[in-house]
């Protein structure tokens, strides 16, 4: 039985606190496996494309990502679990794009992100993997990994004038980002 977890919003200190690494010996535990399952259920419930553990009041370096196939921003990303991830930019190129966040409900803003990154992490069973990511997948990885350092997308915005309520954005900027992270 997997519970839908309560999402912490900005203002709660857990969103602004750097998370600690998951001890490798804990990965196989029932508690950790349940946390991962409940993060996935919670991400799906709120139709996010990513969720980081501090967003559900757990100060650990864990995130989940899944981008549906219907998404126009790029190829689908299958369900990916990031435990103790390390992200390294590939090149200097950054691109602006709309982002939203389950911890900042109702708002969207334009955020520059590296277009290509290398991701190294453990999967939910503690096995190391590496991936090269580009485009929207790279954007979501950077957004989720920022959460593990107590950062949110507002901190990365270069022009706060783009900060918009989703309702207004749908009326005036039809192609803007719809999902939260
Ligand atoms: Zn977020």
Fold and architecture overview:
Helix content is 20%, strand content 29%. It is built from 3 helices and 8 strands. A 5-stranded antiparallel β-sheet has the order 1-2-3-6-7, with helices on both faces. Strands 4-5-8 form a 3-stranded antiparallel β-sheet. A hairpin with a 7-residue loop joins strand 4 (94-99) and strand 5. The longest helix has 16 residues, at 30-45. Residues 101-103, 143, 147, 181 line the site of zinc ion (ZN).
Concise structural overview:
The chain is α+β, with helices and mostly antiparallel strands and about 180 residues long.
Strand content: 25-35%
As a whole number of angstroms, the C-alpha radius of gyration is: 15 Å
Poorly predicted tracts of residues: none
End-to-end separation: 24 Å
Name the helicity range: 10-25%
Q: Profile the largest sheet.
A: 5 strands, antiparallel
Chain-averaged pLDDT: 94
Biggest sheet strand order reads: 1-2-3-6-7
**Number of helices, counting only DSSP H or I runs of 4 residues or more:** 3
Count the E strands.
Answer: 8
The general outline is globular
Query: Strand pairing plus helix content: what structural class?
Result: alpha+beta
**Element order: H for helix, E for strand:** HEEEEEEEHEH
Bound small molecules, which ones? zinc ion
């Amino acid at each position: 039985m997997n519970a839908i977890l309560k999402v912490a919003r900005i203002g709660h200190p857990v969103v602004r606190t750097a998370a600690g690494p998951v001890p490798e010996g804990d990965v196989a535990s029932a508690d950790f496996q349940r946390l991962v399952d409940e993060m996935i259920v919670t991400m799906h419930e709120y139709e996010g494309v990513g969720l980081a553990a501090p967003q559900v009041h757990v100060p650990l370096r864990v995130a989940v990502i899944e981008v549906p196939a219907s998404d126009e921003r790029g190829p689908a990303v299958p369900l990916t679990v990031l435990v103790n991830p390390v992200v390294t930019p590939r090149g200097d190129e950054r691109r602006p794009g709309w982002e939203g966040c389950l911890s900042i409900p109702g708002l969207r803003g334009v955020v520059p992100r590296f277009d290509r990154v290398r991701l190294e992490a453990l999967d939910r069973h503690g096995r190391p993997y590496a991936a090269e990511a580009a485009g929207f997948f790279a954007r979501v990885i950077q957004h989720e990994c920022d959460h593990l350092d107590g950062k949110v997308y507002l901190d990365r915005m270069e022009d706060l004038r783009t900060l918009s309520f989703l309702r207004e954005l749908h009326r005036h900027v039809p192609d803007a980002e719809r999902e939260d992270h």
